[in-house]
């Protein structure tokens, strides 16, 4: 498959990441078949995309007249059969192996044989996902960052089976989205979470051991290391439950106890202090209406 022959992209899952991925493909001129299991998720996704496009118009990144053009490229569907029109597909369904397995094997049967199937998983082995399809050499990781329309990076992840052709085409496609592809081989946590999660974990240990308050830990990293967000602010944004799950994947996958989740992180998760989404994590968001 040639880059220029990719006109229509299927995005499976219209949640946090799926709506962002659909946004950037439509914005770059691709037709997008956006698939979710229920119309209400699709409605919510289109609402988010509309608001995010408005934000781009306000910032002068998109002409007002182009907003309806971008929106018209999106085709929300609940019927999986509609993805047959796709020349490339990205999966962004929940991070549960059984859901991924079901969606990937169904998509694999519908997509044309030459079509590349990409996964946005943050922690499941690309090599294992590739092996669940009949196109392991045309399976690749496309790890977008949240929020997708804003973040420049896409880790392009090579499963053991990924062909050079599929890897190179995905890299070029990423550039067409205005994103910067970075080549990474399949390994637990890839590079992003392999490096980020131990940082967050160590920051949590500093709080647990009374070395410093969350505010102080974040201030050190922002003012001293030029990080735009402190690690604990970022952990609250990602979700403390998601952080614990990813640390578990690193510990299991790499077999090294240095990745064990900090007991304070686990305690917060047990208390349902999950970060921004629950109103409380290392910080309290309830007064901000979060
Ligand atoms: N949220 C993040 O910051 C982030 C960052 C990078 C990667 N990821 C990865 O992206 C993927 C999606 O995460 P998310 O945060 O967008 O999850 P989410 O829960 O916000 O969205 C998942 C969507 O998939 C839908 N879905 C469920 N079953 C489906 C099916 N059979 N077919 C189609 N859609 C289905 C759900 O209804 C939901 O709308 C995960 O693999 C996650 O690890 C997430």
Spell out the key features of this protein.
globular, 14% strand, 8 strands, 290 residues, eight-stranded mixed sheet, alpha/beta, binds nicotinamide-adenine-dinucleotide
Description of the structure:
This protein has 290 residues and is of the alpha/beta class. The protein is built from 11 helices and 8 strands. It has helices at 16-27, 39-58, 66-72, 97-110, 126-131, 164-176, 192-208, 214-225, 231-238, 240-254, 263-270; strands at residues 8-12, 31-35, 74-77, 88-91, 116-119, 139-144, 153-158, 180-185. An 8-stranded mixed beta sheet has the order 3-2-1-4-5-6-7-8, with helices on both faces. Strand 7, helix 6 (164-176) and strand 8 (180-185) form a beta-alpha-beta unit. Helix 1 (16-27) crosses helix 2 (39-58) and helix 7 crosses helix 10. The radius of gyration is 20 Å and the shape is globular. The termini are far apart. The mean pLDDT is 97. Residues 12-18, 35-37, 41, 92-95, 99, 103, 120-122, 146 line the site of nicotinamide-adenine-dinucleotide.
Low-confidence stretches: none
Which percent range fits the helix content? 40-55%
- The CA-CA distance between the termini, in Å, is 45 Å
Report the order of strands and helices. EHEHHEEHEHEEHEHHHHH
Number of strands: 8
Ligands: nicotinamide-adenine-dinucleotide
Looking at the structure, what is the overall shape?
globular
């Amino acid at each position: 498959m040639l880059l220029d022959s990719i006109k229509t992209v299927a995005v499976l899952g219209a949640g946090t990441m799926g709506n962002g991925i659909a946004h950037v493909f439509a914005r770059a001129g691709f037709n997008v078949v956006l698939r979710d299991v229920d119309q209400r998720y699709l409605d919510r996704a289109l609402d988010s995309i509309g608001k995010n496009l408005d934000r781009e118009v306000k910032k002068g990144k998109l002409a007002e007249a182009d907003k309806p053009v971008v929106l018209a490229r999106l085709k929300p569907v609940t019927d999986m059969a509609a993805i047959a029109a796709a020349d490339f597909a990205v999966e962004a369904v929940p991070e549960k192996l059984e859901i991924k397995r079901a969606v990937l094997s169904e998509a694999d049967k519908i997509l044309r044989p030459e079509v590349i199937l990409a996964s946005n998983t943050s922690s499941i082995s690309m090599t294992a996902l590739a092996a669940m399809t009949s196109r392991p050499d045309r399976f690749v990781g496309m790890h977008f960052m949240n929020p997708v329309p804003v973040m420049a990076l896409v880790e392009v992840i090579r499963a053991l089976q990924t062909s050079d052709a599929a890897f190179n085409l995905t890299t070029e496609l990423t550039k067409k989205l205005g994103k910067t592809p970075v080549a990474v081989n399949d390994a637990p946590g890839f590079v992003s979470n392999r490096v980020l999660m131990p940082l967050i974990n160590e920051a949590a240990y500093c709080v647990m051991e009374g070395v410093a308050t969350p505010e102080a830990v974040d201030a050190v990293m922002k003012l001293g290391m030029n990080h735009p967000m402190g690690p604990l602010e970022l952990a609250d944004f990602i979700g403390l439950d998601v952080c614990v799950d990813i640390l578990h994947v690193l510990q299991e996958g790499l077999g090294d106890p240095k990745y064990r989740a900090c007991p304070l992180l686990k305690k917060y998760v047990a208390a349902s202090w999950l970060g921004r989404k629950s109103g409380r994590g290392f910080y309290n968001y309830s007064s901000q209406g979060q």
